[in-house]
Amino acid sequence: MLSTKSYFLTTHSGSLPRTKDLVELYVALSRGEEVDKGKLEDAIHTSTEAVIQNQINSGIHIGNNGEQTRESFFSYIRHRMSGFGGASNRPPFKDMVDYPSWVDLKLSGYLDGVSLISAPQALEEVTYTNKEPLDKEIDQFNNFLNKEEGNPFKETFMTAPSPGIIAAAMEDVFYGDMDAYLEALAVALKIEYDAIYSAGHILQLDCPDLAMERHVYFADKNETEFIEFINKVIKAIDTALTDIPKESVRMHVCWGNYNGPHDSDIPLKTILPSLLNAKVGALMLSMANPRHAHEYRLLTKENLPDDMLIVAGVIDTTSNYVEHPEVVADRIEAVVSSIEDPQRVIVGTDCGFDTAAGFRDVAEEVVWAKLKALSTGAEIASKRLL
Question: Which residues pair with residue 43 across a beta bridge?
Answer without folding.
Answer: none
